[in-house]
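for the writeup, i need someone to sanity check this before i put it in the appendix. the sequnce is what the collaborator sent (i think, or maybe the updated version? ugh). structure was predicted straight from it, no edits. if anything looks off just tell me and ill rerun, i have time this weekend
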Amino acid sequence: MEQKLDSNDKKLISLLSQNSRSSTTTLARTLGLSRSTVQDRIKKLESRGIIGGYTIRLNEDYKERQISAQVMMTFHPKYSDAILQALKKMPNVVTVFAVSGIYDMISVVRAETTEELDKTLDDIGSLPGMEKTTTSIMLSKKYEV
């Protein structure tokens, strides 16, 4: 039976989400636990698959300076897996969603320049099996949770 997270595990996850580079000493001090207890909890969370890895969070100013676009894609179904694998290899494609409706997938693309964005859009449009793409450039963020 899967063990539920207690309040210390939830707090630990929250602290690591804010800064995954926090030392176990700092985490222990913040949580009021020993360093070895924090290390054990982290190992257990990793082994249970609750912590799946560590990553970076980009500075909001940097992200806001980038040009973001949504690319709605329609493609031949037999190319679905190949298109997804190709999108995963494109460094400017940051997210891919399978969707219902007239499009098969929607991806979010981020680039530092319009030239870089244009090249990525050309690369997506030229994938084998791609039938149609429609791109919307995101102008400003109005709300985010």
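The chain has two domains: 7-47, 60-138. The mean pLDDT is 93.
thx in advance!!
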